[in-house]
């Protein structure tokens, strides 16, 4: 499948908030099927970068292209429909819906007309519904949440909810998956489980993954390429090994958390 996954190209993106340049001419490329991490100290611009890619924030200038398609200026639901799906730092699941319900809701976003037909209980819609349910089960198995499908999302342990959030993003059948701090707040066991899940998803589904993460062990273990931001600027890019030796990166992290 990675043969069909388009390249994501971020070029010269600048974002300004009153008095603050959150991103200053930032550019990088996520190669098809690769895992690309964006790291940097607090306030470096990582979240802003994600918000630009998913359409929540419009840059003052610059471009984001998925294959031949310009994403800047498109609303978030169009960007998701084109194949860029994201998770959030703070889990955004419906707590009263079951895990399966949350995933089915995401599937319905794929086909809005399907949702209407489904409400009218047309036979074609019932077939479609069964197909969606089968795919939801497949994705749930991939992400290790299949045993929890009947449980309301709000009652699940934190680590499972984070994997469910990832499963929900995958329900949109993305070409590029944006993961916003997927192991934040997790204990060691949950972190290892999430790392395995990300590896499985990437290898099994062939999607590209763009990861924002503070956990350097995870980045070193998973990433093919790393982009380092500091004060809104891209200060370095390369493999995890190259990044850890880069003098500007070491300097940027001094006094905060040194990359392990
Ligand atoms: N909506 C906003 N209005 C004003 N300033 C903002 C806004 N969002 C972000 N900023 C500023 O832009 C800069 C980059 O913030 P951003 O949240 O992207 O950094 P980050 O690397 O994600 O930080 P963290 O690791 O703490 O999440 C910071 O100086 C921040 O204060």
Automatic annotation (TrEMBL):
Q: Kindly list the GO CC terms recorded for this protein.
A: plasma membrane
Q: Name one Pfam family in it.
A: BCA_ABC_TP_C
Domain ABC transporter: start-end pairs = 8-256
Keywords associated with the record: ATP-binding, Nucleotide-binding, Transport
Q: Name one GO molecular function term.
A: ATP binding
Which InterPro entries has this protein been placed in?
A: AAA+_ATPase (IPR003593), ABC_AA/LPS_Transport (IPR051120), ABC_transporter-like_ATP-bd (IPR003439), BCA_ABC_TP_C (IPR032823), P-loop_NTPase (IPR027417)
Checking PANTHER family in the record gives: ABC TRANSPORTER ATP-BINDING PROTEIN (PTHR45772:SF1), CONSERVED COMPONENT OF ABC TRANSPORTER FOR NATURAL AMINO ACIDS-RELATED (PTHR45772)
Name by which UniProt lists this protein: ABC transporter ATP-binding protein
Species of the source: Bailinhaonella thermotolerans
Highest classification ranks of the organism? Bacteria, Bacillati, Actinomycetota, Actinomycetes, Streptosporangiales
């Amino acid at each position: 499948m990675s043969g069909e996954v388009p390249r994501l190209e971020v070029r010269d993106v600048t974002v300004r908030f009153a008095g603050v340049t959150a991103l200053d001419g930032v550019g990088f490329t996520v190669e098809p099927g690769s895992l690309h991490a964006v790291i940097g100290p607090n306030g470096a611009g990582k979240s802003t970068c994600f918000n630009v890619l998913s359409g929540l924030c419009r840059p003052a200038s610059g471009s984001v292209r998925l294959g031949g398609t310009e994403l800047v200026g498109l609303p978030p639901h169009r960007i998701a429909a084109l194949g860029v799906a994201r998770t959030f730092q703070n889990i955004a699941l419906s707590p009263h819906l079951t895990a399966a319900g949350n995933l089915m809701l995401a599937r319905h976003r794929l086909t809005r007309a399907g949702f209407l037909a489904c409400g009218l209980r047309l036979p074609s819609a019932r077939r479609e519904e069964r197909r969606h349910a089968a795919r939801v089960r497949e994705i749930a198995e991939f992400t290790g949440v299949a045993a929890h499908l009947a449980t309301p999302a709000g009652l699940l342990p934190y680590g499972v909810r984070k994997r469910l959030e990832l499963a929900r993003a995958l329900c949109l059948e993305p070409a590029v998956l944006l993961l916003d701090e997927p192991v934040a707040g997790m204990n060691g066991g949950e972190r290892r489980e999430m790392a395995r899940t990300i590896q499985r998803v990437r290898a099994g589904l062939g999607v590209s993954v763009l990861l924002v993460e503070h956990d350097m062990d995870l980045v070193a273990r998973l990433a093919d390429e790393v982009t380092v931001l500091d004060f809104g600027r891209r200060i370095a890019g390369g493999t995890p090994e190259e990044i850890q030796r880069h003098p500007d990166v070491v300097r940027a992290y001094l006094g905060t958390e040194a990359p392990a």
